[in-house]
């Protein structure tokens, strides 16, 4: 498959799903692998919108982040009729913008949703897409979409 690689920042929102769907379709054309990167920072996640934050030990947090990433990947693959695309899953603790830029070094494309916030505080791509647009080491695609768009 060569070294073609499309990096997608995914944090569990509909925007992230749309970005991943776009990247999977593009990967088919370019014969690339898709590296799905989920950056997580906080050790606190919302228990529910009303309950504020509950501390989770790092194992629980990692589990939750992994499950969220998997759900977005499965949903995007289903939406693109499960093409035969190699998906690399990357979970990194850190600051979203800096971390995505590091992972995207030597990638063909970096793809993010135009905004979004998954179930986790701190996994936000709105401000991230803005900050990486100035420093991306490779071409950057910002997929703009509504949450409920199917394509």
Account of the 3D structure:
With 151 residues, this protein is an alpha/beta fold. It has 4 helices and 7 strands, in the order βαβββαβαβαβ. The strands form 2 sheets. It has a 5-stranded parallel sheet with strand order 5-2-1-6-7, with helices on both faces. Strand 1, helix 1 and strand 2 form a beta-alpha-beta unit. The longest helix has 22 residues. The protein is globular and about 40 Å long. About 5% of the residues have low confidence.
Which labels suit this protein?
23% strand, globular, two-stranded antiparallel ribbon, single chain, five-stranded parallel sheet, alpha/beta, 151 residues
List the helices and strands and how they pair.
Blueprint: E1 5-9, H1 14-30, E2 33-40, E3 44-46, E4 53-55, H2 58-79, E5 87-93, H3 96-103, E6 109-113, H4 126-133, E7 140-143
Parallel strand pairs: 1-2, 1-6, 2-5, 6-7
Antiparallel strand pairs: 3-4
Structural class: alpha/beta
Q: Report how far the terminal alpha carbons are from each other.
A: 26 Å
Radius of gyration from the alpha-carbon trace, in angstroms: 15 Å
Mean pLDDT: 80
Strand order of the largest sheet: 5-2-1-6-7
Largest sheet: 5 strands, parallel
- Shape designation: globular
Strand content: 15-25%
User: Quick one: how many beta strands?
Assistant: 7
Q: State the helicity in percent bands.
A: 25-40%
- SSE string: EHEEEHEHEHE
Concise summary:
The protein is α/β, with parallel strands linked by helices and 151 residues long.
């Amino acid at each position: 498959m060569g070294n073609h690689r499309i990096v997608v920042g995914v944090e569990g929102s509909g925007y992230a799903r749309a970005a991943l769907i776009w990247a999977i379709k593009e990967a088919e054309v370019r014969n690339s692998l898709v590296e799905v990167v989920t950056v997580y920072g906080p050790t606190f996640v919302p228990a529910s919108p009303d309950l504020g934050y509950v501390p989770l030990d790092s194992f629980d947090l990692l589990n939750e982040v992994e499950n969220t990433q998997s759900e977005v990947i499965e949903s995007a693959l289903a939406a693109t009729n499960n093409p035969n695309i190699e998906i690399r899953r990357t979970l990194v603790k850190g600051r979203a913008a800096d971390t995505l830029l590091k992972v995207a070094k030597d990638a063909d494309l970096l793809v993010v949703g135009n905004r979004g916030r998954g179930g986790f505080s701190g996994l936000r791509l709105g401000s991230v897409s803005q900050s990486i647009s100035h420093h991306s080491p490779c071409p950057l695609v910002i997929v703009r979409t509504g949450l409920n768009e199917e394509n």
